[in-house]
Design brief:
The chain has helices at about 5-15, 35-45, 65-70, 90-100, 135-150, 170-180, 195-205, 210, 250-260, 270-275, 285-295, 310-325, 325-330, 345-350, 355-360, 385-395, 410-415; strands spanning about 25-30, 50-55, 75-80, 105, 120, 130, 225-230, 235. By secondary structure, the protein is of the alpha/beta class. It folds into three domains: about 5-150, Rossmann fold, CATH 3.40.50; about 185-295, no CATH class; about 310-415, Cytochrome Bc1 Complex, Chain D, domain 2 (Orthogonal Bundle). α2 packs across α5 (about 135-150).
């Protein structure tokens, strides 16, 4: 029985005999199932190239000499270091002897696939998500493997571009004198209580780096009131308790431990914090950190904004029903532990729409944790400025919520 690589070799030789070989550069990719993503990645990097892949996943009738003769007709050949037995006559070492210029691609061993984690957006198809044989995650890792196979480039160190005097030690010393006050030195860290929570939140956890608004000199304030994250394009919400939230500590523990709670899900930069840090905290530390945050001065109740234009709202209803309701529900309640609610979700009604725009533009992906090992991801929405403004206005002014309406100009400003 012919294997995949046998069929691919026959196809290539048939094309050559018919004189349909395309112009340079001609690229060949030899490997296992990762060859799909690697070949696709090369096509994205060099759109005018002709890329063929030769999949070695089971034994065929092809000989190593025939494979080498076929690959010799390409300008560039990349291959995984495959073992003997897939083609008659040898494996990677023997192929390297016949084709000295073949470039190796590092093999990636997958312990499992998670299609809802990473998307590569195809610029040749208006940002359409690339679908590999086992999902876009496969293609992303395969493309990464190809990039890691390229030889390093020697690049001279560039001088910094901060204009005088900002790049000088004197300027940093002046900045520190105005904006930095060292905390009192601790002989030992607090063992428990609110003091332990304060130590974790303001010290080890350095939550204020994102959640404390910065002044005009980029120095963080003392209150964890939230603010735009410089350079990241996300809005870190306030960590002060909301009005009337009696279960705040329990919800905070769940979010830090599992990446999801009854009100929403940690996404964007916070998902990485949960993945790499807070899910591994001791239960007692999670409890004391949540207790400290719940004892901060509460945020004031948000004022109700005027109702949006009926035409804008009608467009939002149509888009929400068509694009969002299947997961988040017509009532905005979502599915507990699976799809986060939009009704009562603090991110939905916070003053800034920055995070909402990032989630709609790039998708929302939670961290995989012990309490939520297979989180569901949300793909990018692919909406125009007008459509995004309409659907955001609808969810911000539905189910008892009355946050400010969103205009297409607001969306354009933050995109």
């Amino acid at each position: 029985m012919l294997s995949e690589i046998d069929h691919q070799l026959l196809h290539v030789w048939g094309r050559r005999l018919r004189g349909r070989e395309k112009g340079a550069p001609r690229i060949a990719v030899v490997g296992n199932c990762q060859s799909f993503g690697i070949a696709y990645g090369m096509k994205l990097l060099v759109p005018h190239a002709h890329v063929d892949r030769f999949t070695i996943v089971r034994k065929g009738v092809t000989t190593l000499d025939m494979l080498a003769k076929t690959l010799a007709g390409y300008d560039h050949v990349f291959s995984l270091e495959f073992q003997p037995g897939f083609v008659h006559g040898g494996g990677w070492e023997e192929l390297k002897a016949l084709l000295p210029d073949v470039a190796p691609i590092p093999s990636i061993v997958f312990s499992g696939f998670h299609p809802g984690t990473i998307y590569i957006l195809d610029p040749t198809r208006s940002g359409y998500p690339i679908e590999g044989p086992t999902g876009p995650y496969h293609s992303a890792i395969a493309l990464f493997a190809y990039l890691r196979s390229l030889p390093p480039v020697k690049l001279e160190r560039r001088a910094h571009e901060l204009r005088f005097p900002f790049g000088t030690p004197v300027a940093m010393a002046v900045w520190q004198w105005f904006n930095f006050t060292p905390a009192a030195e601790l002989q030992r860290s607090p063992a428990d209580g609110i003091a332990r929570g304060a130590y974790l939140v303001t010290g080890l956890g350095h939550c204020g780096e994102c959640h404390a608004p910065r002044n005009r000199w980029s120095a963080p304030g003392n209150r964890l009131e939230g603010g735009a994250m410089p350079g990241d394009g996300w809005f870190a919400p306030s960590l002060h308790p909301g009005p009337g939230a009696s279960d705040e500590p329990a919800q905070t523990v769940a979010l830090l431990r599992d990446g999801i709670n009854a009100r929403g899900v940690a996404s964007g930069p916070m998902a990485k914090v949960v993945l790499d840090s807070t899910q591994h905290w001791l239960p007692a530390d999670l409890h004391w950190a949540a207790s400290y945050l719940s004892n901060l001065p509460p945020d004031p109740a948000p004022s109700k904004s005027p109702e949006a234009d009926p035409t804008l709202r009608a467009t939002g209803v149509r888009l929400y029903t068509d694009r969002c309701a299947d997961c988040h529900g017509a009532d905005g309640q979502g599915v507990r532990g699976v799809y986060p609610p939009l009704a009562g979700n603090p991110t939905v009604v916070q003053p800034s729409i920055l995070t909402l725009i990032r989630v709609l533009d790039h998708g929302g992906f939670a961290a995989a944790t012990a309490g939520n090992p297979k989180p569901y991801g949300m793909p990018p929405a692919m909406l125009s400025n007008e459509e995004m403004a309409a659907v955001l206005t609808y969810v911000r002014q539905s189910w008892g919520q009355r946050a400010s309406a969103v205009s297409s100009l607001d969306v354009l400003r933050y995109r």
